[in-house]
Amino acid sequence: MKYLKIFKNKIFLGFILILILFFSFSFFNSRNKEAKNIVSYIVKKIDLPITIHESGNLVALKTTKIINQVPGRRSILEVVEEGTEITEEDVKKGKVLLKLDSNDLETQRDQMLITVENSYASYLNAQENLEIVKKENDSMMKNAELKVNFAKMDLEKYLGSSLANQVIEKRNKGENIDYKELINSEKLGGEALNKKRQLENNIDIAKEEVIRAQNQLDWSKKLAEKGYITKNELEADRLSLKQKEVSFEQAQLSFQLFVNYEFPKNVEQLLSNYLEAVAELERTKSKCKSRLVQAESDLRSKMASYRLNEKKLLELEENIKNCTIIATSPGFVTYPTTTVGFRAIAAGTQIQPGASVYQFQELLHLPDFNSMGVEVKVHEASIQKLSLGQVANVKISSIPNRVFKGKVIQVSNMPDQSLKILNPDINVYIVKIELIDKDKTMRPGMNADVEILIKELKNVIAVPITAINFEKGQVYCEVLKSKSIERKYVKLGESSETMVEVKEGLKEGDVVVLSYKGPTKGAVKKEEMVEKGKIEPKKQETKSKNEQGE
User: Fold this and answer.
1) N or C: which end of the chain has fewer CB within 10 A?
2) Pairing of strands 499-504, 447-464
């Protein structure tokens, strides 16, 4: 009765009600705080642009290149300063841009004058060659006869003596040669028979190796079913069988190639050599009769030699003239070795007075500022994504608050060698972007940031990169349910710098967790996603584990 009176007390009941409200408020407040600690993203379909970001420099896509046309290495005597503006007036006056040392050419010219005189004297000596020609006729006939004998010996060496004579007889009669009949003939001998037997032996050996590999694979499958060997060992046996089968096919193919192509080709070649040697013998007989006439033509050849030397004399005069380079078009003078950097200094190829240059070396550039573009270096992991005509957005650091449109006009087929000295393992390719929009203040060498649009994925499910986690080689997202966080494994597609396509595992409306105060999430290496268009789980898992260890 005492306790019943207490419960009937209104004050006591009010106290109990306050306690219940207090604990309820504390519980829901803690749930709200927990929810506030979670950063989430609602999954939806979006248009996902795939781009490549690189930094580069402005270049003039059209440049007048002044190339050294003078043979050999020679020193620069004088050169205009870099940055000098060449005007139309300078072009009209023939302003000297660069002068090379021509002392050696002038010496050669003087020597060539003497050579020209000597070549004329040789013309007179050609008459004395008539007697020598008569003695050479006998030697030529003997050599032609030897070639006929040697060519026949080569054919007999390949087919055998009996079959070689049979082939020669058929060809002389104009009959067709059946090469399948030849290869299967009992009279076949020499190198052809040896090669045929060798290829047949290779087929037999390869076939036996296939049988052994198949037996080994069958045995490995039984062991694998019982768990005595690993899947890698079983896969190795499968690969070994595949290799043996390929070797067997190659052996068969080699035999067929020999029978259908190599054997007929060799017979035709050797037979042709023999028939050509016979024809050459007949031609030699005719040549010997005309040697006297040819000796007279030698007089004319000596005259041609004289004219050739005279031509060389004119070339030397032209080279001496090319040692002085004058302006042919207006522009701003730049040195091509400026872009080479310390390698040019180390090699001593800087364009300056006293420096040595070689033939076909670029001496000066006159860039056309009306054809400005951007040159960037793209890593080999991304170069296969690029193609001509792709649209690019360009930002120039010295021209803020402006975005210039451009397009890819050149993708190098070979890696840039300028970085090989610093790191031989790095392969980057030069890509040139033509600017559609231009500005008068643009100058070569200005820093530029380029974003090249590879493609745009339409209406795909994508999530922020930070929503992706890795564990034991698997990719997953953490999805927020009503009172818990669940793990959903996903299959990824391509990615931008911030978003990644999810091909499987998520649907529209799912709420993925980006961050929360809880266990450390797997890290994502954004650079690899940007370059490769996908995430490599093993590398990310390793990085995540390292961060947790730290």
Assistant:
1) N
2) antiparallel
Q: Cα 80 vs. chain centroid, distance in angstroms? A: 38
Q: Which residues of 72-110 are buried (b: 16+ CB within 10 A; e: fewer)?
A: eebebeebbeeebebeeebeeeeeebbebebeebeebbe
Among residues 259, 263, 251, which one has the least CA distance to residue 204? 251
C-alpha to C-alpha distances, 93 to 66, 76, 81, 108, 365, nearest whole angstrom? 18, 22, 18, 30, 19
Closest of 524, 534, 527 to residue 469, by C-alpha: 524
Look at residue 461 in the predicted model and tell me its pLDDT: 93
List C-alpha distances in Å: 511 to 46, 52, 175, 488, 515: 15, 29, 85, 11, 12
Residue 254 tokens, joined = 């080699």
> For residue 316, how many other CB atoms are within 10 A of its CB?
21
Helix (H, G, I), strand (E, B) or coil at 387: coil
Kindly indicate the confidence band of residue 22, based on its pLDDT and cuts at 50, 70 and 90. low
- Give the torsion through C-alpha atoms of 251, 253, 256, 260, to 10 deg: -140
**pLDDT band at 500; cut points 50, 70, 90:** very high
| DSSP labels, 284-353 | HHHHHHHHHHHHHHHHHHHHHHHHHHHHHHHHHHHHHHHTEEE--S-EE-B-GGGGTTHHHHHHT--SST
List, in sequence order, every residue forming a beta bridge with 58; answer none if it has no partner.
374
Closest to 493 (Cα-Cα) out of 517, 459, 519, 516: 459
DSSP 261: I
Q: Is the dihedral of CA 175, 178, 183, 184 positive or negative?
A: negative
Query: Over the stretch 349-372, which tens digit does the pLDDT of each residue have?
Result: 678 898 999 999 999 988 877 788
| Dihedrals phi, psi of 261, to nearest 5 degrees | -130, -55
Round to whole Å and give the CA distance between 534 and 271: 61
Question: CA 440 to CA 369: how far, in whole Å?
Answer: 8
Question: Which residue bears the tokens 């009172």?
Answer: 483
Task: Count other C-beta atoms under 10 Å from residue 450's C-beta.
Answer: 23
